[in-house]
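Hypothesis: this fold can be encoded by more than one sequence.
Test: take the structure tokens below, design a sequence, compare later.
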């Protein structure tokens, strides 16, 4: 069932001040258990292709897990292995999306694949790193990710640090047909009660940070 969520799912995103996680999980109408997918707690996501080249609703992403946050002026090695995927939004209103199978390839290969898909030469545009926790429902039809200390870099031959967030990010990921489930609606009400509000994605936030530099 988790594979079905990954392949065809709805996502709802929120930002919230630090300190609300335990209260929200305690009061959640859905029984959620933390699941650890990697012993490395930091997720790095590399977005390939700028917003003026990549069509709306499409993301070319390479992801890897790190033991610690990178230095602000770290060097990116394009021979490192990443989990590469292509994500396409199918319905803007419900944020329903479809993601291709994850493939482990070098970062250089991920850039090459993206260039072929887009029919033009592209490069890395944005890098994010964040500490993520996963919480999964008992029947595995819903997953919540909780991200902290999100950091952003623009990429132009090398990473250039942009910003570190002082808020936390919640994403509710469900099967596409569960968006009107009363438990999810109740969970969103609880998130709002503790100060959460709807948010754009990290990708959109990063692109906005880049545009403000020029």
């Amino acid at each position: 069932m988790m594979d079905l969520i990954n392949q065809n799912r709805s996502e709802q995103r929120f930002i919230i001040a630090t300190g609300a996680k335990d209260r929200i999980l305690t009061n959640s109408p859905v029984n959620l258990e933390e699941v650890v997918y990697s012993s490395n707690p930091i997720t790095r996501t590399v977005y390939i292709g700028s917003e003026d080249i990549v069509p709306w609703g499409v993301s070319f992403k390479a992801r890897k897990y790190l033991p610690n946050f990178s230095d602000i002026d770290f060097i990116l090695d394009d021979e490192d292995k990443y989990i590469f995927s292509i994500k396409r939004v199918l319905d803007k209103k419900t944020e329903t999306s479809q993601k291709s199978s994850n493939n482990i390839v070098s970062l250089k290969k991920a850039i090459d694949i993206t260039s072929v898909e887009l029919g033009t030469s592209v490069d890395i545009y944005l890098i994010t790193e964040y500490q993520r926790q996963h919480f999964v429902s008992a029947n595995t039809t819903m997953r919540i990710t909780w991200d902290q200390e999100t950091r952003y870099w623009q990429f132009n031959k090398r990473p250039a640090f942009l910003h570190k967030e002082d808020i936390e990010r919640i994403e509710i990921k469900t099967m596409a047909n569960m968006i009107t489930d009363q438990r999810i609606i109740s969970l969103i009400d609880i998130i709002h009660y503790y100060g959460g509000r709807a948010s754009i994605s990290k990708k959109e936030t990063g692109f906005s940070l880049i545009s403000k530099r020029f």
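The chain has a mean pLDDT of 90. The radius of gyration is 17 Å.
Hypothesis status: open.
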